[in-house]
Design brief:
about 350 residues, alpha+beta, 9-stranded antiparallel β-sheet, 6-stranded antiparallel β-sheet, 6 helices, about 20% helix
């Protein structure tokens, strides 16, 4: 929230409430001389409360309310404690027409990249997530009210600015957009915190990574691209284990190859090639899970630069020793079959 927005909000508050708030914040405002009058005392109270609020905001940022762990963790998915040692503070920034961004933290694993970014806009725009719609209600961006985003922006004489984000790595034919997702938090009308979660292709270097921020005003307006090179830290060397399938054709529609399994502070990462052997049976496959893992990120065959489809998962929670058992399900969530990979 901007300081002038705080001032306008506080200006509608009566003196008694202002004084109560200032005392709760630890301020003991001395009485103004009689000749100064009521307005001077009110000005002192307003200044005290606003200063305290801004100080609290600074502490909140120092406490890293919009860091990787704070933005990633949910009631159902939590980063392992060991991941804290992989989180790296970042300071890269970029400036565009009416918008700027600051990369704050990164975390890199053998198969996962997490990046937090703060985007700040100018006074002419309201920042909203890339997938928002003008007719969405304010609650969609965490604000109270029954107005739509479009109505809210119009009432303030501003435009909606749609913010997207992604991560690219150099590829043989130019920058390669990494698959993943973005979590957005609207801190205020002009500030947004983003968590980029990207799948790192197996064996690909992190050198040359670029954080890509897109800004779009909607309609036919062209999107502005803000590219910020980031230095990502390679995780400590981890032993790769190879697992061979006991029966590569155990699941109708596919044939699998050897699985590469790595155990890191984030959990278990695994990748194995899949070749379609029967199109009809192949498209019956809806999801997978594992006998040894209770939770994981990703899954789904992705075409690699080498022209081979691979199923890749990361952050698996559980214990993998001599076997990795992958269970395949159809669209009715009925078990089709399972493939047992055994450690070589």
């Amino acid at each position: 929230m901007l300081s002038e927005e705080i001032l306008f909000a506080m200006n509608d508050t009566d003196d008694a409430a202002l004084e109560a708030v200032s005392r709760r914040l630890g301020y003991r405002v001395k009485k103004a001389p009689a000749r100064a009058g009521r307005l001077s005392r009110r000005a002192v109270l307003l200044a005290a409360v606003i200063a305290a609020f801004l100080a609290f905001s600074a502490v909140a940022y120092a406490a890293n309310l919009w860091g990787i762990r704070e933005m990633f963790d949910t009631p159902n998915v939590v980063l392992p404690e060991a991941a804290d040692g992989l989180i790296t503070a970042q300071s890269e920034s970029g400036q565009g027409a009416g918008v700027s961004c600051q990369v704050t933290e990164s975390l890199c694993d053998v198969s996962t990249i997490l990046l937090t970014v703060t985007v700040t806009g100018d006074e002419a725009h309201i920042l909203v997530p890339q997938d928002a719609l003008p007719e969405d209600l304010l609650v969609s961006i965490g604000r109270d009210g029954e107005e739509t985003l479009e109505e809210y922006a119009a009432r303030q004489g501003k435009e909606l600015l749609y913010i997207g984000a992604g991560l690219t790595l150099p590829g043989p034919d130019g920058p390669q957009n990494l698959m993943g997702g973005v979590t957005s938090t609207c801190v205020s009308g002009s500030e947004m915190a983003l968590l980029i979660e990207a799948e790192r292709p197996a064996g690909v270097s992190l050198e040359g990574a670029v954080c890509l921020i897109t800004c779009h005003k909607g309609g036919d307006a062209a999107a502005e691209r803000l590219e910020v090179p980031v230095t990502l830290t390679e995780p400590a060397a981890e032993g790769e284990m190879l697992f061979a399938p006991e029966d590569p054709d155990a699941v109708p529609g596919i044939r699998v190859g050897d699985a590469s399994v790595t155990i890191s502070p984030l959990g278990v990462s695994a990748s194995w090639p899949e070749t379609m052997t029967d199109e009809e049976d192949y498209y019956k496959i809806m999801k997978i899970d594992f006998a040894e893992l209770t939770d994981f990120q990703g899954s789904g065959s992705v075409l690699g630069d080498d022209g081979i489809y691979r199923n890749q998962i990361s952050m698996g929670q559980g214990q993998v020793t001599d076997t990795l058992t992958v269970r395949y399900y159809d669209w009715d969530k009925k078990l089709i079959g399972e493939i047992v990979f055994r450690k070589k």
